[in-house]
Amino acid sequence: MENILEIKDLHFQYGEIVALHGISLSIGEGEIVTLLGGNGAGKTTTLTAISGLYKGITAGEIYFMGEKINGTAPHKIAGMGIAHCFEGRRIFSQLSVKENLMMGAYLRSAKSKEVADDLEYVFDLFPRLKEREKQAGGTLSGGEQQMLALGRALMQKPKLLMLDEPSLGLAPIIVEGIFAAIKKINESGLPILLVEQNVNAALEVANRGYVLETGSIVGSDTAENLLKDDLIRKSYMGME
Hints:
The mean pLDDT is 92. The longest helix has 16 residues, at 172-187. Helix 3 runs parallel beside helix 6. The strands form 2 sheets. The chain has a 6-stranded mixed beta sheet with strand order 6-7-8-3-9-10, sandwiched between helices. It is built from 10 helices and 10 strands. It is α/β, with parallel strands linked by helices.
């Protein structure tokens, strides 16, 4: 299996604050890989470093599809095929559902048949969005906004999808639907890097996971083994 993404000994800091201490990880073709850890562990920072949204890399390398992307502008990284679905959704509240989705395709020709086909794919995946196609994004429920954020990322036609806390603030029944959609998206072959506080839900869909603590990777294994790990169960799942 070839790696879609590979991070080697990455160090990252915000000003004088060191956030990542030499982490290394990889994502292979078609995998879902999850990053586990408490608040401040460095999970979101890892996604930020990959996206190039903050120039804080002080050492190490990030490779996407074999090409080093350190220092590459965020819009160019997006154009290469990395879609970043942010914590908190960050939809355009004044734009309609369809307009939000089309913003995801801004680097593509909006008139192309492929874009139209992808829009229909998103509507098939999230029928609720089709029902609210002309409704302002800001008037949607939290679950619907998460569907919209996911759909907008898919409209980018990514080669790698990065999801930051997709279940945040959502009711359990909605979370179940979101993770069913994530699994279905991955079944199409799209690799996913998942940051998620709901450890059980994340490991149920993931192939592998990495455990971060204060900016360092302290463990990694298959999702199946991590689900059985006593330390993971006690520390992140509240189980004895």
